[in-house]
Structures are given as structure tokens and as C-alpha cells.
TrEMBL record:
<feature type="binding site">
    <location>
        <position position="36"/>
    </location>
    <ligand>
        <name>a divalent metal cation</name>
    </ligand>
</feature>
<feature type="active site" description="Proton acceptor">
    <location>
        <position position="36"/>
    </location>
</feature>
<protein>
    <recommendedName>
        <fullName>Ribulose-phosphate 3-epimerase</fullName>
        <ecNumber>5.1.3.1</ecNumber>
    </recommendedName>
</protein>
<comment type="pathway">
    <text>Carbohydrate degradation.</text>
</comment>
<dbReference type="InterPro" id="IPR000056">
    <property type="entry name" value="Ribul_P_3_epim-like"/>
</dbReference>
<comment type="function">
    <text>Catalyzes the reversible epimerization of D-ribulose 5-phosphate to D-xylulose 5-phosphate.</text>
</comment>
<feature type="binding site">
    <location>
        <position position="9"/>
    </location>
    <ligand>
        <name>substrate</name>
    </ligand>
</feature>
<feature type="active site" description="Proton donor">
    <location>
        <position position="177"/>
    </location>
</feature>
<keyword id="KW-0479">Metal-binding</keyword>
<feature type="binding site">
    <location>
        <position position="34"/>
    </location>
    <ligand>
        <name>a divalent metal cation</name>
    </ligand>
</feature>
<dbReference type="InterPro" id="IPR013785">
    <property type="entry name" value="Aldolase_TIM"/>
</dbReference>
<dbReference type="InterPro" id="IPR011060">
    <property type="entry name" value="RibuloseP-bd_barrel"/>
</dbReference>
<dbReference type="Pfam" id="PF00834">
    <property type="entry name" value="Ribul_P_3_epim"/>
</dbReference>
<keyword id="KW-0413">Isomerase</keyword>
<feature type="binding site">
    <location>
        <begin position="144"/>
        <end position="147"/>
    </location>
    <ligand>
        <name>substrate</name>
    </ligand>
</feature>
<feature type="binding site">
    <location>
        <position position="177"/>
    </location>
    <ligand>
        <name>a divalent metal cation</name>
    </ligand>
</feature>
<feature type="binding site">
    <location>
        <begin position="199"/>
        <end position="200"/>
    </location>
    <ligand>
        <name>substrate</name>
    </ligand>
</feature>
């Protein structure tokens, strides 16, 4: 298993050329496609549905697609995104009435399952669900928009989550999303993250490879 994964958020990609831009960021060395789904209900923005995910597969994108559902309710879209080619689907505990059932639904659809915690949402539910998830996504901005600043108190939350994962003895990815840049990625990794979503930092630069290489150089300094 690769130690660190870089997952560009295509929320910041060129939507008029989504397939081409996604392939370009993968060719530049990205590991995973991070796919942000917003419903203008759970979050105040509206983005992409399952047809976009299928469109990327039809275009020829073969990399893992990591779907972050910022929607409520979740279950119908879980099924639709699994059919559309998602590999991982992550959901917010406060967006579904029956979290355990929704996590099981993701797995029954053949995907890995992630749980996402907004900045001020407690880690408490992990006590009950950690044995069933493959990924924990810690939001380091309030969800809804790219280009926001990393919230500093999240570093402590990442460290607390890392301890819970290590104590569980399970292989669980610890993903961080929001305000990840070249100059803070090492600090976020030192706190315990091993998967990094970056939207504006990568797609806002004219040369994606330069940013991804610089991020990997920073990660190489972390033991
Ligand atoms: O989920 C998100 C927002 O809800 C985005 O993935 C996230 O904000 C990444 O964008 P950036 O790297 O520009 O902060």
C-alpha cells in the first residue's frame, strides 16, 4: 500500500473539459480522483451527479474515484455512484438517519466506505463505526467551496483520529480535505494524515506536475 496518496479535487478542474483535465492531473502524478458531490441542501453549492462520474469512466479515466457525498439523504446516490464507477464513497454522519445502514449499503454496492467529519463535528461516532469504515475524511474547511483556508485546530483532530485508527489495529486511510497546500502538507502528514485532497492548489497552478512533485517532496520529509 502506498504510504501517501494525493487526491486532486476536480471541484477546481475545468468543468468544460472535465475528462481532459482529470486525465491531465493523473498524468501529472496524482493517485486518486477526488469527486465532490454537493446538493445545495446539505451544503450551499451544487456540483456533479452520477452522470459526471460515468462520463469520466466513459472518457477512459481508470484511476480510483473517491466520491465525497455532501448530500442529504445519501442512500439513493450511494447506489447511483457505485453503478457510475465510484471506488470509494464517503458520507457525513449528520446527513443520514441510519449511518450504520448507509455504510453497509456502500459496501454491499462493492465500494470501500468512508466517513466524513466536518470541522466542528465530534469524533465520537467513530467509537461505534470505526470497525466498519475503510477511510476517515477529516474536513479542514467548512464544506461547500474550494479555495478556503485550512482551519488550524484541525491538526489536533487529525492527531486524535490517527490515534483512534492505530488503536483499532485496522488499515484505514486518514484523508484531509480543505486548504491543503505545498507549504502545509508536511505538517498535516506529521499530524497523522496519509491522503491529501487538494483542489485550488493544484488546478490553480499552470503546471500540475510542479505542484504534485513539490507536495511529494514535502511528504518525503515526514518519517
Ligand atoms: O470538499 C471540498 C469543499 O467542500 C473541496 O474538496 C475542498 O475544499 C478542496 O478544495 P481546496 O483544496 O481548494 O480547499
Amino acid at each position: 500500500m502506498k504510504k501517501f496518496l494525493i487526491a486532486p479535487s476536480i471541484l477546481s478542474a475545468d468543468f468544460a473539459r472535465l475528462g481532459e483535465d482529470t486525465q491531465k492531473v493523473l498524468d501529472a502524478g496524482a493517485d486518486v480522483v477526488h469527486f465532490d458531490v454537493m446538493d445545495n441542501h446539505y451544503v450551499p453549492n451544487l456540483t456533479m451527479g452520477p452522470m459526471f462520474c460515468k462520463g469520466l469512466r466513459d472518457y477512459g479515466i481508470t484511476a480510483p474515484i473517491d466520491v465525497h457525498l455532501m448530500v442529504s439523504p445519501v442512500d439513493e446516490l450511494v447506489t447511483a455512484f457505485a453503478k457510475a464507477g465510484a471506488n470509494n464513497i464517503s458520507i457525513h454522519p449528520d446527513a443520514t438517519t441510519h449511518l450504520d445502514r448507509s455504510i453497509q449499503l456502500i459496501k454491499d454496492q462493492g465500494c470501500t466506505a468512508g466517513i466524513v467529519l466536518n470541522p466542528a463535528v465530534s469524533l465520537d461516532c467513530l467509537d461505534y463505526i470505526i470497525d466498519k469504515v475503510d477511510l476517515i475524511l477529516i474536513m479542514s474547511v467548512n464544506p461547500g467551496f474550494g479555495g478556503q483556508a485550512f482551519i488550524p485546530y484541525i491538526l489536533k483532530k487529525i492527531a486524535q483520529t490517527r490515534k483512534m485508527i492505530n488503536d483499532s489495529g485496522r488499515q484505514i486511510r486518514l484523508e484531509v480535505d480543505g486548504g491543503v497546500k505545498i507549504d502545509n502538507i508536511a505538517e498535516i502528514a506529521k499530524a497523522g494524515a496519509d491522503m491529501f485532497v487538494a483542489g485550488s492548489a493544484i488546478f490553480g497552478h499552470p503546471d500540475y506536475k510542479t505542484v504534485i512533485d513539490a507536495m511529494r517532496q514535502q511528504l518525503a520529509t515526514v518519517a
